[in-house]
Specification:
The chain is of the alpha+beta class. It has two domains: about 1-55; about 60-130, Beta-lactamase Inhibitory Protein, Chain:B, domain 1 (2-Layer Sandwich), CATH 3.30.1450. Helices cover about 40% and strands about 20% of the residues. It has helices at about 1-40, 65-70, 80-85, 145-165; strands at about 60, 90, 100-105, 115-125, 125-130. Strands 1, 2, 3, 4 and 5 form a five-stranded antiparallel beta sheet that branches. Strand 3 (about 100-105) and strand 4 form a beta hairpin. It is flat. The chain starts with a helix and ends in a 14-residue tail after the last helix.
């Protein structure tokens, strides 16, 4: 009778362990399914759309011309020189070959869009007119500086002047005898 009791209790313990394991796996399975449904509905991954984790490639269409390329254009250049410098134009008029159009569109990964249209006119196989080209000036990088930059420059100038005017011979350094 004692043998029957031991096998019966051991069988119940094994059954209880199995039932607990099945309950745990059902619970984990339900959590996994609910998280998956939440993720598919956009609740979990919807916050990542505005985050910088997702990288978007820059979009370039047409002839994306830089200003330094256009600065090299001069009136009187031949068609071959212009084609070598800027590339093949996007649009040429089949009826009037004296006009070339360059269209460029660029969208950065952050969503900033820039586009440019450059039209070149030729007369006697020479460049005669340019539209959409900003002429490079000698004061290309000179703009309206901000107040902080001006204050820093004034402070630097004052310290340089004070250092130079404070005495040329302060006795520092090595004296070099003159022959």
């Amino acid at each position: 009778m004692l043998g029957y009791y031991r096998t019966h209790i051991l069988r119940d313990k094994a059954g209880a362990r199995r039932r607990n394991y099945l309950r745990l796996t059902r619970f984990m399975r339900s959590i996994l399914i609910s998280l998956l449904m939440l993720g598919l509905s956009g609740g979990l991954f919807g916050g990542l759309a505005g985050c910088s984790i997702i990288y978007k490639l820059p979009t370039r269409q047409g002839n994306v011309l830089e200003q330094k390329q256009l600065d090299q254009l001069t009136l009187g250049m031949t068609r071959d020189q212009v084609k070598f410098l800027l590339g093949t134009p996007i649009a040429t008029d089949p009826f009037r070959g004296e006009r070339w159009d360059y269209f460029g569109y660029y969208k950065s990964p952050r969503g900033q869009v820039s586009s440019r249209t450059v039209t070149l006119y030729f007369a006697d196989n020479k460049l005669s007119q340019m539209d959409g080209v900003q002429i490079a000036s000698a004061e290309k990088n000179v703009g309206n500086p901000d107040v902080d930059t001006l204050a820093k420059q004034v402070k630097k100038d004052e310290s340089d002047n004070a250092r130079n005017a404070g005495g040329k011979d302060k006795g520092t350094g090595v004296a070099i005898p003159t022959p």
